[in-house]
Amino acid sequence: MKNLKVEKVFVFIIVLFLSNSSIAQERGIKELDFLIGTWETREDNIKEEWWETSTREIKYTLKDNFIELKANSIDSNGRKREYSWYINYNKKTKQFEMVSMFSNWHKTQFDILVWDSKQRKLTIRNKPDSENEFHERFGEIIFDEDFDEYTWTGENKYGDPNKPSIWKYVEKGIRIK
User: Fold this and answer.
1) CA distances from 165 to 47, 91, 124, 135, 159 (A)
2) 120 CB contacts (<8 Å, ≥6 apart)?
3) Of 21, 28, 50, 150, whose CB count within 10 A is highest?
4) What distance in Å separates the CA atoms of residue 73 and residue 87, rounded to the nearest whole number?
């Protein structure tokens, strides 16, 4: 009888432990905590002989359910712009989603982010466009071991889907705070 009680308590503890560990492993926005801070970046398009530098302030917002990025930049032609990104983890679709808005572009972008913690790689791919305007975006951001630097390699395709304009870029970022 005493052994039966001990077994029941033991089973209860195991079930409690397993349920708590599965809750702890639930995905969420805190997986991207390494983004928080201030970053200096430089994007280069070698083919176009163009560059842009920016300062990005990244923090949690809306009761820590979103990551907000606010940036100011200047390019090699002296043009300044501002842009904002908002990232969340959609528990229904089980994916990271990002909304991007730019002071110099007419449309809002919607992207899907895939985080691979083993490779320290964040992949960005735009959602299919519901408008008639063609735009396709893909990029991979690889972080160093300390998450203080990254290299982002990507491309944007836009315009005519049969013969799109292609913007290939490499961006390097370093955390300054």
Assistant:
1) 13, 35, 19, 10, 6
2) 142, 143, 144, 145, 147
3) 150
4) 20
| Residue whose structure tokens are 């432990």 | 17
Kind of pairing between the strands at 80-90 and 95-102? antiparallel
Q: pTM for the whole thing?
A: 0.81
Q: What is the pLDDT of residues 10-45, one digit of tens each?
A: 444 444 444 443 444 589 999 999 999 999 999 999
Euclidean distance between CA atoms 66 and 55, whole angstroms:
19
